[in-house]
Amino acid sequence: MVKAVIILAAAMLAGLPVSAGADEKAGAAADVEAYVERVSGLAVDPAYGDYLSSQCTSCHGANAAGGIPAIQGQPAEAIIAALYEYKTEVRENAVMRSVASALSDEDVAALSAHFSQQ
């Protein structure tokens, strides 16, 4: 239940179109939830997550500014959902779309595990 609430909140914060019908919103939220479930179940190499994280922390470090959120300590499910929403263009940010699109599911799993444990 908590996962579903986090995922639905992330989808709502992503700015899903207000004009979208209830069925369309529910479908988008279900896609995010399915992705989070799948990626959360992948085996994670902590050293790989640490290695990948340097690219993220250059902008999303503890002293992130200018509207760029710090991601350390965020729930893994929220990080996975956000990256999926950038990949699928639900969230609009050209830099994050480019970064997220280059990540494999294993990369997303490693990064989300790394940052959620910070």
Describe this entry's structure for a reader.
- It is a single chain.
- The model is unreliable at 11-20 (pLDDT under 50).
- The longest helix is centred in the first third of the chain and has 19 residues, at 22-40.
- The two termini are 24 Å apart.
- The chain has helices at 2-13, 22-40, 46-60, 76-87, 94-101, 105-116.
- α1 (2-13) packs across α2 and α3 (46-60) packs across α6 (105-116).
- The chain is built from 6 helices and no strands.
- With 118 residues, the chain is mainly alpha-helical.
* Unreliable residue runs: 11-20
Helical content (DSSP H or I, runs of 4+): 55-70%
Tally of extended strands?
A: 0
Order of helices and strands: HHHHHH
CA-based gyration radius: 14 Å
Strand content is under 5%
Oligomer, anyone? Answer: single chain
Total DSSP helices = 6
| Termini gap | 24 Å
Structural class: mainly alpha
The mean pLDDT is: 83
Biggest β-sheet strands, sense, barrel: none
Characterize the overall form: globular
SSE inventory with pairings:
Blueprint: H1 2-13, H2 22-40, H3 46-60, H4 76-87, H5 94-101, H6 105-116
Helix pairs in contact: 1-2, 1-4, 2-4, 3-6, 4-5, 4-6
